[in-house]
Amino acid sequence: MRDIARAYTVSHRADREGVFKLQSEFDSVRERLAYLRDHPDLAELEPSVLEVAAQMSHVSRDLARTYSDRNVQRAQDFLIARQQEVEDFNVRIEKAKAAAVEIRRWHERLELDEAIAQAQLARLVDELEDILPEILPEATVSMDAPAPEAPEEPRPDRVVPMPRAAE
Predict the structure, then answer these.
(1) DSSP 45
(2) Is residue 77 within 8 Å of residue 63, measured between CB atoms?
(3) What is the b/e burial string over 102-137, where b = at least 16 CB atoms within 10 angstroms of the residue's CB?
(4) Which residue in 21, 29, 76, 161 has its CB near the most CB atoms, within 10 A?
């Protein structure tokens, strides 16, 4: 069995390499048998063993054509190219993820800066609402109230008393 398997392996390898060209079963087996007889690694095998291996090789010739060295190499090249495409795609995805994270952080920083600015504005409004009645007792200005119309020309006869500090 080992001898047959060894002879079949040699014949199948030759079939995958496209050595055998004849199509009819008789000619195909005869061509394979001649190849095996001339092969230096199989010189010590009996003719019946070589004949069985040649017949097995003929039966599996379609398999050998399908998995010829050329077809296997093309499939491997295709898979290598696909693998490279996937790796390139993963690199682009990683860059996109990094950009998305950067944009998210930038957005969060802007929201925080806006919130801080709004809080500072609210604090200033509160301070002004507390201070303005002290400075201008007759004016109760609220930042929420509509803005007063433009004042008339200032009159020099109008003086606003300023509160004095305790002496």
Answers:
(1) S
(2) no
(3) eeeeeeeeeeeeeeeeeeeeeeeeeeeeeeeeeeee
(4) 29
How many CA atoms lie within 13 Å of 43's alpha carbon, on the beta-carbon side? 3
pLDDT value at residue 59: 64
The DSSP letter of residue 164 is P
What the block records as the tokens of 21 is 């060209």
Instruction: Give mean pLDDT, residues 56-76.
Output: 78
Estimate to the nearest angstrom the gap between the alpha carbon of 80 and the chain centroid: 17
Closest CA to 132 of 145, 119, 141: 141
Q: Which residue has the higher pLDDT, 161 or 93?
A: 93
CB neighbourhood size of 64 (10 A)? 22
